[in-house]
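Here is an idea for our session: we take a single protein and study its fold together. Which protein we use is up to you, so please pick one and set it down. Once you have written the record down, we can walk along the chain together:
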Amino acid sequence: MSSPEQSKQQVATGQGKTKVILYWLEKSRAQRILWLLEELKVDYELKTYKRVNMIAPPELKKVHPLGKSPLVSVQAEGAAEPLVLAESGLITEYLIEHFGPSLAPNQYQNGKEGQVQGETEEWLRYRYFMHYAEGTLMPYLVVALLLRTVREKSPFFIKPIANAITGNIESMFLRPNLENNLNFLESQVKSAPDGGGYLCGSRLTGADILLSFPLSSAKGRAGLSEEKYPALFEYVNRMEAMEGNKKAIQKIIDIEGSYDASL
């Protein structure tokens, strides 16, 4: 009898007949999708773009009206037009469903298929963190980026005012929320089911990959330190050292000459 993981893998679409293109933007969340494609061992084409004055170039609007990244196009054999996917969560869910279901936990406990509250803890964590990465954690890091930019770009004669305003926002709003989230994630890493190791259990999932970018950024910008958050810090280091992640980074270095994960 095949294992649940093997059964899942057997339902994946034949990737050899599907054309996948990742539209990658420097210093963006698209790096997570590149890592995901490496983990899925999907054949794909990579198109890279540079920022113009900190924002995505207008060329990306030819792919999707919002002109943001990441974007992925998927074109099955025989399809007249490619399907263009935007938003990291949707891209991750779609690619995992078709090319690597083993990166998602089993949804139901044995004997409770389709029942309300019959879901596994691993699956509930997976779905939660898929939304949490962009819906809760990432906005605080974007605020941190904006405040830093205001301080650095303000003319010298208003810097004291800019520093005072951004400092108040950081102390009253940003820092407490970041600390609350990092404490939460520290506890989640420690309490992960099935022996832990990853946020949803004992093996890597798409949720781990989605959280990799904001957590790597948090190490340098948001106070994620080994002293304050030892379990979370070790988890992030382990994510960064994974072979698929390193391959994705090296691919960008080979094309662009360097790689910068910072926001």
